[in-house]
Amino acid sequence: MTPKYIFFTGGVVSSVGKGVTAAALGLLLKERGFKVSVQKLDPYINVDPGTMSPYQHGEVFVLNDGAETDLDLGHYERFIDTPLTQVSNFTSGQVYAEVISKERRGDYLGGTIQVIPHITNEIKRRIGLVAKTTGAEIVLVEVGGTVGDIESQPFMEAMRQMNREIGRENLFFVHVTWLPHIGATGELKTKPTQHSVAELRGIGISPNMIIARSDHPMEQELVDKIALFCDVEKRAVVPMTTTKTLYEVPLLLEKTGVADFVIEKLGLKASKTPKLGEWKKLVEKVKKDKPTIKIALVGKYVELQDAYMSVRESLRHASISLGVESEIEWIHSADLEKGKRLDALKSADGIIVPGGFGTRGIEGKILAANYARENKIPYLGLCLGMQLMCIEFARNILDYENANSTEFDLNTKDPVIDLMLDQRDITDMGGTMRLGLYPCVLKKGSKAAEAYGVKQVEERHRHRFEFNNAYRDEFEKKGMVFSGVSPDNKLVEISEIADHPFMVGSQFHPEFLSRPMRPHPLFLGFVKATKKKAGR
Question: What is the top EC class of this enzyme, as a single word (predicted)?
């Protein structure tokens, strides 16, 4: 059977919700019995987002196989609940690198290399890999950016070619656009949508459906207008008003019959009736009034909350499950170093210190770990957050006042965090980290073991530096418990303070495996302890 492809393009502005829309539709199709997979095409020339600033790109989402990908893949996995692989995300940089590599090897026999056909053929090959490697019947493909971007033109051309090559009956184009609201007149305007569709049609692609996003309800008159001017069926114009929770999006799409319309146009037949009862319960819990707990998230990139997308969502999953509302206080760690935002830290019921790279704001995060330890405030350290928790412990409990990580101080006399031995001679920034899924053995009776309820787990990693085993005995004698280690006992995976309600740090990133219906155990343990501390 020829796989079916659903392409998602964006109009008017970026970050309009293509990723959530694709993820939600993927869920609805999976619920109808189809095997689905999702792919994100990123137009930037970087090979992957691994070396990009979080301010530029937001969060880097890591997959089981170690691929560093776009944050939209987090949406895909959280909604569809299917582990994705490296074929589910590729960039213009990867495409051009592959074509140039082939040219250098002589694969093109001295021919002139051009965007058409060489670049577009490589794009089409990579799109085809998803169905080949996963056996997906339906592949949902999101194109990053906005129609009209010069970087995305090869992607659009590849899609136009696929439309002809594999047959229009096997492709479906969804255009997700934005309706601006004019405050002076109280109107939603459709003209930008009309222009973006005209741009898309000028490329040779006619959308089969338009998802019209807005912050205000949309009248039927506007639906009819968009259908007329953009040449789509009226029932294919789907109003999508901003919701309180993105987990309501599948329910809204189901209500408007989007999935049924798509499979009708693709000539498919559902094998089962969708059951969305659990999603409805989830949304009801979100909307229900709940007691609030205050969480201080001490980070380096808090100006752009998307840099901590999975952390925020994981906290939300655990909070919903435990019947509380987590109110996040975003604290820049550099502010703590300057004596600012201390009141926000002190009023918190729980503290999270997430991952990051570089020296900026490090002492502020260590200050947060110190405050959590001394005042018995529930603390969850993620990757760097675990490392800094260990540095704080070394400085203030073991009296190694200059203890540090060699990431921040190459000449520190007490490198309690140090570079992995097999990474010391590598200089290529794109290939120096421990990435992907690794096993972790849990220590019986520890808080981590209690949270997980099993003896061994597998978690996703993204880091270069490790806890220095030369200090392990000293730490344990003073009350640090290494409650998770690699099966060979060589690498510390989880550390926790014995005499503390909940002070746990993980070398891995638990946030990448949390799901709305299945909150991550460490986040559940943290929220449970925070809820108790707050008396909720």
Answer: ligase
